[in-house]
Specification:
Blueprint lengths: L2 E6 L2 H13 L3 E6 L1 H11 L3 E5 L7 H10 L8 E5 L4 H9 L4 E4 L4 H11 L13
Parallel strand pairs: 1-2, 1-3, 3-4, 4-5
Length: 131
């Protein structure tokens, strides 16, 4: 079981991802906005972070910079979720310290699977029946 911090300014994103991570057996922390996300990351020390890029005030870029500057957080895997699809933006996120970048809209189970991969965890088998 891992502790995953979701940093996003949209409540629904945190709720959807919380459910997807719960299905994987993970504890999920949610922080609304960049400033609160930095605070929770430094206080809670999550195993992985899912980070929105476009947030008012403290942006995902600001969060990346703050967390990668903190020695205790500089090796925590960070997955950036963004509505921005330009390759240049993806490259910028990776250069700033993101480990992976995915675009919105997204499949919550795919996000959970990617985070498991970043943490080197085996995939959780699905027990859902096919229609």
């Amino acid at each position: 079981m891992a502790r995953v911090l979701v940093i996003d300014d949209e409540d629904v994103i945190g709720a959807v991802l919380r459910y997807a991570f719960l299905e994987q057996g993970h504890e999920t922390l949610v922080a609304e906005g960049g400033r609160r996300g930095i605070e929770r990351a430094l206080l809670e020390r999550p195993d992985a972070i899912v980070l929105d890029l476009m947030m008012p005030g403290v942006t995902g870029h600001d969060v990346l910079a703050a967390l990668r500057d903190d020695a205790a957080e500089d090796d925590v895997p960070i997955l950036v979720l963004t509505a921005v699809t330009q390759i240049r933006e993806r490259q910028r996120c990776l250069a700033e310290g993101a480990d992976k970048v995915m675009t919105k809209p997204f499949d919550p189970r795919e996000v959970a699977s990617v985070v498991d991969g970043m943490l080197n965890l085996p995939p959780v088998p699905s027990f859902r029946r096919s229609a």
